[in-house]
Amino acid sequence: MEGLPRGQGLTPRFVFFTRGVGKHRNRLQSFELALRMAGIERCNLVRVSSILPPQCKIISGDRGLKMLQPGQITFVVMAEVSTDEPNRLVGAGVGLAQPADRNQYGYISEHHGFGMRSNLLADYVEDMAATMLATTLGIEFDPDTAYDKRKEIYRMSGKIVDSRASVQTAEGDKNGLWTTVVSSAVFIM
Question: How far is CA 31 from the centre of its chain?
Answer without folding.
Answer: 16
